[in-house]
Design goal:
Elements: H1 10-16, E1 20-24, E2 27-32, H2 34-39, H3 48-55, H4 66-78
Antiparallel strand pairs: 1-2
Length: about 80
Amino acid sequence: MTVLTTTHYIEEAEAYCERVAIMDRGRLAGIGTPAALKASLGERGATLEDVFTRVTADTTESGGSYRDVRRLRRSITQHH
């Protein structure tokens, strides 16, 4: 059985999905198991957010980078 789920929450995708597809501006930017996607970066401790950052265009529509957005999001999470 296949269940298709869409989310903007990387942690949710990693926790619940056996396979993940990352879309960027209407195109398939990456697909595989969370473990395989993280391993493809060749970095110890890589996360799906790291994969997302690498396989997307690396900029948001507002001009900031995804890395900047991720850093801000982590900073806010740690302080609350």
